Amino acid sequence: MIINDAELSELIKNSKAPTEKELNKILLKAKKLNGLNKDEVLSLLNVEDEKQLEQIYSTAKFIKEEIYGNRMVLFAPLYISNLCSNECLYCAFRVSNKSLVRRALPQEEIEKEVIELLKQGHKRILLVAGESYPGGGLKYIFDSIDTVYKTKWNGQNIRRVNVNIAPLTEEEFKELSKHNIGTFQLFQETYHKPTYSGLHIAGQKKNFEFRLNAMDRALKNGIHDVGIGILFGLYDYKFEVMAMLEHISHLEKTYGIGPHTISVPRIEPADGSDLSLKPPYQLSDLEFKKVLAILRIAVPYTGIILSTRENSQMRTAAIEMGVSQMSAGSKTNPGGYEEGSAGAQFSLGDHRTLEQVILDLVKHNHVPSFCTGCYRLGRVGKDFMDLAKPGLIKHHCLPNAIFTFAEYLHDFAGEELKQKGFALIEKTVNEEIKDENLKKLALKNLHDIKNGKRDIYL
Ligand code: SAM
Ligand code: SF4
Asked: What was the pLDDT predicted at 347?
């Protein structure tokens, strides 16, 4: 696929904010839950007026509630290695950073990290690595995925492994698909080629097209769910959002499905990286919220992921803007869950534990979800989208969220959270599950979970 820099820049230059009447028309269309076209999105990106922004936020909130209800999927990143042969000027793992403590965890240490995550109550992880593997090949990654799935602690195990690693060749994707991963995540960082070239100055990652076309290779070679993203702060956010929408419509046209998730990292300070301290196109909090809300409106059925790069205030605000997945209790250095924080990729904005994040979600009337049902039942790729678009996925997601949250409360929560969490579950079952048969089934499953049954999903 090709992004036409000049054409897109010209389009943005000639665009303007909508009039009151135009905005109302766009937002009315958005509420039909079918997304927006390019011109409409660009129009929204130009909004700066506070009252108009509020209208955008409340439309995003409406869409989030219609499609996702009050659920929030939680996961933890697992950094297995910070070895890297690339030179990305914003990242602490870049090859020239000699002060970084380098580590690729051996399988026994990966097992220990997984046990630490299981002890916290996690069920979903995102495996992350730099682009250089001990032994030279991807075997290290494949073995690590297998180790994560194999590790057990006290009857608990990780049920879904997503991966965020370098782009692969067609053959390598075929191999990766045999290891039962959930989503393959890869961020383009910036869709603006000249900026990309100036920031990725050595190693494989210099190749912009190889990265841009990675999702095509993935979807053609056995990977069902892909996650895309932008590293905000590298280039003009309007260009990035518009280019990402082009990427999405290319995937939709070619494969019948868009990305499963969009990630929205903003650059955080990274060891020894001047650029990360002063990103050239720093995105303000206000612009960030606007982007989140517009993405929710533009691609209603794609999950939006927010990491612990953001601080707790922003993460709480983002719940309303349509974010549907969050990492929690994260460490960004290999070995970080068991040991200290030497060798981290960047500094975190949210240092709260998983339990503290959950307590905050519950206070905001949100049910934390550790659900892995769709992927384990094969509801992936187009099958997932076909269920999601008419809103049918809600019949699975909300009950599954409730079951996994009930498990968490029984197995891991302190008294305060237990009390508040079960009250929220009761309220949610009574008020949100309208179908009487489904409600009966949910109550039965909750009873079974109380009596020790685990891993129930619809
Ligand atoms: N090495 C692989 C790659 O670059 O695609 C995957 C792992 S890399 C650790 C995951 C992501 O971290 C990158 O795609 C980039 O967007 C993000 N990242 C790097 N430096 C960052 C920083 N200083 N602040 C926030 N995110 C950063
Ligand atoms: Fe390596 Fe990825 Fe960091 Fe670039 S972003 S230096 S490829 S780990």
From this structure: 75
